[in-house]
Specification:
The protein is of the alpha+beta class and 195 residues long. The chain has two domains: 1-45; 47-194, no CATH class. It has one helix spanning 4-46; strands spanning 48-57, 63-66, 69-73, 79-84, 88-98, 104-116, 120-131, 137-141, 153-162, 173-174, 192-194. The strands form two sheets. Strands 1, 2, 3, 8, 9, 10 and 11 form a seven-stranded mixed sheet that branches. Strands 4-5-6-7 form a four-stranded antiparallel sheet, with no helix packed on it. A hairpin with a 3-residue loop joins strand 4 and strand 5 (88-98). It is elongated. 21% of the residues are buried.
Amino acid sequence: MMSGPPVRLRFITSLSAFLVTAFLTGGQASAQDRRLEDMLPALTRRTIVFTISPGIEEQNHEVVWNETISRVTLPGRPVSIKIMGQNIVVEVLFTPYVGRRGEKLLTAQSQVWIEIPDEGVRYQTTMRTMSFEFNEKILFFPLGSERNDQNARIVIQLELNPYAEQDIPPDAAVDEEGEGQEQAASGRPRGEAGQ
């Protein structure tokens, strides 16, 4: 039959093993912190700031809604945006790539769901790749760039720039979603993306 003291000894032994493990882990964390601090300058040199301005433009070119947001990412990591309306959902994933020789590519993937009266929901998806330069304004039209006398159009203006600490608004977010199979388009005169 077991008595009280051996159980206590086991507890004390387990507690001391936990404290030793916690102490060792704390030492590893600070070594990791030092490695992260050493890597930080290299990461900030590669960091890209997206300034994204989605909007809705009426047939007469009047902008009836727009918003500007900033996102911070690294090459190869996507930045996502989702626009929801009464009968439409647009999801777009923008992924920048920077090559070793400085060449820059942007992929745009988007998905669009539109509910059409008496027809149901329509879905379309596209993916485009385009070259870009920093500080260049790119217009992206998830529903196409064609003007229509009957409907407004969605316009997403992008500008990508290298990270500069003084240029980052305090509300800029690191995009962590990075998921989705979304529609995009290019085929643009310089600085314009659309279907």
